[in-house]
Amino acid sequence: MKVGIVGVTGYTGLELLRILSNHPHVEVTYLSSKSFVGKSLKDVYPFELDETVLQDIEVERFEDCDVLFTALPAGVSYELVKDLKNTKVIDLGADFRFDDPSLYEKHYGKKLSNYETCERAYGLTELNREKIKNAKFVGNPGCYPTAVLLATAPLAKNDALGTSEIFVDAKSGVSGAGRKQDESYTFCELNENLKPYNLVDHRHVPEMEEKLEALFKKKINVVFAPHLIPMNRGILCTIYLKTSLSIEEIHRMYREFYQDEFFVHVLPIGTYPTTKWCLGTNHVFISLTKDERTDTLIVMSALDNLMKGASGQAVQNMNVMFCFEEQTALKFKAVYP
Ligand SMILES: NC(=O)C1=CN([C@@H]2O[C@H](COP(=O)(O)OP(=O)(O)OC[C@H]3O[C@@H](n4cnc5c(N)ncnc54)[C@H](OP(=O)(O)O)[C@@H]3O)[C@@H](O)[C@H]2O)C=CC1
Ligand SMILES: CC(=O)N[C@@H](CCC(=O)OP(=O)(O)O)C(=O)O
């Protein structure tokens, strides 16, 4: 199967290439860049050892691929790919994530033409597998929404959420911001530092709320506090919510909900996840603790933002769309320590 990566020079693009180089059923035939057209990938990243020449972004070349991964800033992919006839698209940005295009317009400041007519699915594999199978366009979720939705979805199935509000404290490694050059991402700004950013009005809040509403069949407000942490990769979300169920009942529900999932692990009660367990893998670790005194459930989820939070999940979705075994090329174990 022929695969293209548009935006291979970014962090998620490179991660896609790392994963796909282990995939027995695909050949990566098209790699594109904006700034390095005509150079080989090896010229830009000597460790890649890949002499493939980086192409310009040419829509005509997209049709030669069976599937195209677009790993571009939000707002660029949609217009490039929306009219493709035979090529399936997995977009790592936000352009295909929303059911309600007015939410995208409000939070990303751009109108998407004819959005309603494109056959699209939200690419949170474990929660949307059947739709992903037949979709032409898959909107791969944001990294924080992946962590938060997987950590809360079992409560929806059992109507176990006692309130209409959840509180999320999140920490992310710096690769989550992409390879941008910006003063706030320089070494001295980040090293030995823990930095809150975009509190409350982060763009992932409307994405989380839209998907939570669909899951819980009621409006759920998300109070969200993200932080940058001086690590390359990894996300840890700590979610506070109310439920009247006992920790044993909740733990049983979560275990049951994810019992057939290869990538989602519900830890024993009292075991807390760490980001290092997921490093370079597509696995997600979830833990549950209840503060009985305040009747508060604390759910934690840890994942690698470039893997399950982006490129790993994108390949998982490709496997679902093309009927390959879902774990193909994704059986990485953590790099530890
Ligand atoms: N990093 C992460 O953990 C996650 C990222 N995402 C999303 O995935 C997408 C890619 O992210 P990431 O790889 O981190 O980003 P990077 O900033 O690392 O890379 C961006 C890529 O897009 C290309 N590019 C930049 N601007 C344009 C443009 N105007 N037109 C065409 N190409 C352009 C760059 O090309 P060149 O290098 O040639 O200039 C580069 O290949 C984004 O939408 C991001 O929000 C989603 C989940 C997690
Ligand atoms: C650390 C950091 O900056 N993380 C990014 C999220 C990465 C991601 O999932 O991005 P998109 O939704 O834009 O695709 C952020 O907070 O915007």
From TrEMBL:
Catalyzes the NADPH-dependent reduction of N-acetyl-5-glutamyl phosphate to yield N-acetyl-L-glutamate 5-semialdehyde. GO terms for cellular component: cytoplasm. Its EC number is 1.2.1.38. The gene is argC. Signal peptide: none annotated. PANTHER family: N-ACETYL-GAMMA-GLUTAMYL-PHOSPHATE REDUCTASE, CHLOROPLASTIC-RELATED, N-ACETYL-GAMMA-GLUTAMYL-PHOSPHATE REDUCTASE, CHLOROPLASTIC-RELATED-RELATED. Gene3D superfamilies: Dihydrodipicolinate Reductase, domain 2 (3.30.360.10), NAD(P)-binding Rossmann-like Domain (3.40.50.720). This is N-acetyl-gamma-glutamyl-phosphate reductase. GO terms for molecular function: N-acetyl-gamma-glutamyl-phosphate reductase activity; NAD binding; NADP+ binding. It comes from the Bacteria. Pfam families: Semialdhyde_dh, Semialdhyde_dhC_1. It comes from Pseudothermotoga hypogea DSM 11164 = NBRC 106472. It is found in: Cytoplasm. Pathway: Amino-acid biosynthesis; L-arginine biosynthesis; N(2)-acetyl-L-ornithine from L-glutamate: step 3/4. Its main location: cytoplasm. GO terms for biological process: L-arginine biosynthetic process. Residues 2-135 form the Semialdehyde dehydrogenase NAD-binding domain. Keywords: Amino-acid biosynthesis, Arginine biosynthesis, Cytoplasm, NADP, Oxidoreductase. The lineage of its organism: Bacteria, Thermotogati, Thermotogota, Thermotogae, Thermotogales.
